[in-house]
Each structure stands twice: as structure tokens, then as C-alpha cells.
Amino acid sequence: MQGKKVLKWSAIIFVAFFLFTRPDDAAHTVRGAIDSMYTAADSLAQFVSHLS
User: From CA 38, how far away is CA 40, in angstroms rounded?
Assistant: First the structure.
């Protein structure tokens, strides 16, 4: 249980540090993740539509 708590707080501190020290890179990272999810959802939709 203690290990999970340490990992969670370490991740939160890392994200906060990344946001405050390199906000442009953080924004590009988030944008890339959103674009990847959109591409995956679009690919899944195309797959399902081809099944019909």
C-alpha cells in the first residue's frame, strides 16, 4: 500500500514539475496524446463499419 502512495505522489510531482518548467513541451505532449486517442477511435470506427 505504501509503495502505491509513493508512486502516485512521485507521478504528481513529476507532472507538476514538467508543467511549470516546460509548459510548451507539456502542451505538445497532451496534444499528441489526444491526437493518438482520436486516431485510435477513428481506426476502430472504420474497422466496425467494415464489418457490416
Answer: 5
